[in-house]
Amino acid sequence: MKAAPEAQRRLLDLQAVDTALAQLAHRRRSLPELAEIEAVARDISALEDERVRAQVAVDDLDRDIARFEKDIEQVRTRKSRDQARLDAGGALREIEGLQHELATLNRRQSELEDSELELMEQKETAEATLNDVRKRLAEAVERRTAAETRRDETLAEIAKEEEFKTTSRGPLAADLPADLVTLYDKIRTDSGLGAALFRSGRCGGCRIELYGADLARVKSAPADEVVRCEECRRIMVRTAESGL
């Protein structure tokens, strides 16, 4: 393929733009915030599971405490009724029976209240655990929000740079021979780099140094000949820096 030396040289400008675009794309895919958001999302999921378990523990204790309250209230009601009957007087046997039942009810109430107190202490511990999980969950959500904000700001910056580079690429590519650009784009699509400067006997694409007949081929090629590396097949652009 033939192309004017100046057109070949401008391929390097086009490659510089494409390299910058590729770097921006890589930067977008490898933002540290993406990994951070993913890690925090896992933390949030685990903390949410932990929060649910802690909430269930508190709810279970609330239910058990409510049941004890109901039982205690039933005992108190029965004690009040028996005390009223006792105060009203009656046969000795009935009075003795009421006194015995009141003593039994007092013991039952004491046992129930002790059990309820134990549950209330457990609930206090469970609520402290729940509050701690909620705090850690809120902190994790804040970390995720902050990371998402940084991500969005960086992505907006990248998009702005990409727009600028893409806008400048159009006129640059349009000003070059179509067949040269087609060849360049094909090579770039296959290898990521379509053209590179040939300098000091070395291909700027694969960095391999040429010797003997390979070097002589490059040196003897007409200035308008599009020379490609035998190893990486990229276009080797010759300029005054090439040292030929």
Give short descriptive properties of this protein.
single chain, 5% strand, mainly alpha, 244 residues, Helix Hairpins, 4-stranded mixed beta sheet
What would you note in describing this structure?
This protein is mainly α and 244 residues long. It contains five helices and four strands. Helix 1 runs antiparallel to helix 3 and helix 2 runs antiparallel to helix 3. The model has no long low-confidence stretch (mean pLDDT 94).
Overview in brief:
The chain is mainly α and 244 residues long.
Round the mean pLDDT to the nearest integer and report it.
Answer: 94
Helix content: over 70%
Total tally of structural domains:
2
Number-wise, the strands total: 4
Number of helices: 5
Task: Compute the CA-based radius of gyration.
Answer: 42 Å
Low-confidence stretches: none
Proportion of residues in extended strands = under 5%
Q: Order of helices and strands, N to C?
A: HHHHEEHEE
Strand order of the largest sheet: 2-1-4-3
What is the CATH class name of the largest domain?
A: Mainly Alpha
In the CATH hierarchy, the architecture of the largest domain is Orthogonal Bundle
CA-based shape: rod-shaped
What is the terminal-to-terminal distance? 20 Å
Enter the CATH topology name of the largest domain: Helix Hairpins
> Mind summarizing the main beta sheet?
4 strands, mixed
Structural class: mainly alpha
